[in-house]
Write a structure and sequence with these properties.
single chain; 3 helices
């Protein structure tokens, strides 16, 4: 199995809501050449935006300040069988977009804390995790090695 990785975006920005317009713009620009339909791009930008806002609101909270590092890459994995694109040479490839959000917050977030409220509970907010999980194929919270903070990895198969 051969994997190629193409990094399409790496940006670090202050963890505050005022930055999100610019972040969404950069993300949309980076994803544009991936050839995905506009609706898919909109969903991806929405999910990553929700993840960033969760970091801003919950990892840092109202009193802590810090940055978020957003890295986006396309991984191409050669596979034997499955639902993948076949190249003219006969190889099968699975393309996956990987979004990695690193925060540098002083406390570690627990995966159990990352859940949305019940959908039948009508009130504003609390749906970010639900949106993220609906759009992405895989959502994993990783420990940030070498210091405080968290790494949230989101994966979407193309």
């Amino acid at each position: 199995m051969i994997t190629t990785v193409q990094k399409i975006l790496a940006c670090q920005f202050p963890a505050c809501a005022e930055q999100m317009g610019n972040v969404r713009h950069q993300l949309r620009e980076a994803l544009g050449p991936s050839g995905q339909p506009e609706a898919v791009l909109n969903h991806l930008v929405l999910a990553v935006g929700e993840a960033c806002m969760n970091i801003i609101q919950h990892a840092y909270g109202p009193h802590d300040k810090g940055d978020i590092l957003l890295e986006v890459e396309i991984q191409n994995v050669e596979i034997q069988k499955g639902e993948a694109q076949t190249t003219p040479e006969g190889s099968s490839w699975q393309r996956t977009l990987v979004f990695r959000l690193t925060d540098f917050a002083l406390h570690k977030t627990c995966a159990e804390q990352m859940r949305s409220r019940p959908l039948d509970e009508i009130r504003p907010g609390g749906l970010g995790c639900h949106i993220i999980n609906e759009v992405m194929d895989e959502v994993v919270l990783l420990d940030r090695q070498g210091g405080p903070g968290n790494v949230l990895e989101l994966r979407k198969r193309l």
